[in-house]
Amino acid sequence: MQRTLFAIAGLLVCVSMADAQTSVPTYIVPPGGTVNVTVTGTPGQNYAVIASTTNSGFSYGGVPLKVGPDVVILAIGVLGGTGQAVVPVTPPFPAQDRYYVQGVVSASPDFLPPSPLNSVTLVNADAARVFMPIGGIVNANGTPAFVTSGVTVSRTGFGLYQIDHEDFFAIPTAIPMITPTGGATVIAISTNSKVTTISLSADATFFFTIQSIRR
Question: What fold, for 2-128?
């Protein structure tokens, strides 16, 4: 019986640790906006929400955390009966375009040792449009099966396609990747700040992504 109780207790601890997490309803936050960061753990645990403009370089109690030396403590407390704490966070946008937030839990109020949860990366909404990738699937006739909102695609000739993505990127630092289907091959690709043009060996359905290089 005692072994059974220990096994059940161990299982509950494993389940609770597996469920422990840092979560947000959205990773994209406008300048001046606020997002609720939820820390989930075991009721009665001490918790903290920490943040930084970089995601490495800081440790506590010998445990590396997903924040940098400019770490700040946004909230600290004890998880209630639901095992959750919700912390409103206002990232320092637009001075930065990324903000790294991490939940930490511990049985001890001094957080020794700390049990870090996953980190979440909050992205400046103004920068997201410029620095996050776009992509989609285009049918052989040039009609989009699916593309990123705000992007348009047209067929301009045999095996020729034009992807319009004005204001999405700080060109020339964007890299297009094209994958045609049905045996067609890529003959040429050119990209500027507004348009990517594609030449294939034949009309074909193709997948595409266009990724900027972060500054």
Answer: S-adenosyl-L-methionine-dependent methyltransferases (2.20.130)
